[in-house]
Amino acid sequence: MKKIVLAGGCFWGVEEYISRIKGVVKTNVGYANGITKNPSYKEVCTGMTGYAEAVYVEYDENQISLKELLNKYWEIVEPTVLNRQGPDIGHQYRTGIYFIDTEDKNLIIESRNEEQKKYDSQIVTEVEKLECYYVAEEYHQKYLKKNPEGYCHINLN
């Protein structure tokens, strides 16, 4: 299985959306590329930890390519908006693609460059190596499956 971490605002909706994609075999929500060890949600919400709310994704390359997965990702983010997605504002709500396999970096950059052609404003989505990732508290995992009426900035219909 291939792995990648994607940030696109509140992680509840991103996880639900990504988990529905054919070929995605595992997801969980957590905190990517910050500076404190094992942060809590409350700490991440202060904006002082440097973490992005993110979704860890394992996918089967025989069913979906990284390029296809990224195309799906671009459909749900506003990549030219810094530190905000929908009504959620803060550094933790930035968009980001955090690669685990260095060999994925060039394909991710190509995908971002292709997406850039759709916008007049510069895409601000981070493309970085995943430096650290902490799984979020259990109540955040599969949140919208547990709470179907819960908040989501992404149209899941």
UniProtKB/TrEMBL annotation:
GO-annotated cellular components: cytoplasm
Domain Peptide methionine sulphoxide reductase MsrA: 3-153
UniProt keywords, alphabetically: Oxidoreductase
Family matches, as InterPro entries: Met_Sox_Rdtase_MsrA_dom, Met_Sox_Rdtase_MsrA_sf, MsrA_MetSO_reductase
Gene Ontology process terms (BP): cellular response to oxidative stress
One Pfam family this sequence matches: PMSR
EC number from the UniProt entry: 1.8.4.11
Active site per the UniProt annotation: C10
EC class name: oxidoreductase
MF terms in GO: L-methionine:thioredoxin-disulfide S-oxidoreductase activity; peptide-methionine (S)-S-oxide reductase activity
Keyword Ribosomal protein: no
Reaction(s) catalysed by this chain's protein: [thioredoxin]-disulfide + L-methionine + H2O = L-methionine (S)-S-oxide + [thioredoxin]-dithiol; L-methionyl-[protein] + [thioredoxin]-disulfide + H2O = L-methionyl-(S)-S-oxide-[protein] + [thioredoxin]-dithiol
Keyword Transcription among UniProt keywords: no
NCBIfam families according to UniProt: msrA
Its biological purpose: Has an important function as a repair enzyme for proteins that have been inactivated by oxidation. Catalyzes the reversible oxidation-reduction of methionine sulfoxide in proteins to methionine.
Family as reported in the entry's similarity comment: Belongs to the MsrA Met sulfoxide reductase family.
Protein name in UniProt: Peptide methionine sulfoxide reductase MsrA
Organism, as annotated: Clostridium cavendishii DSM 21758
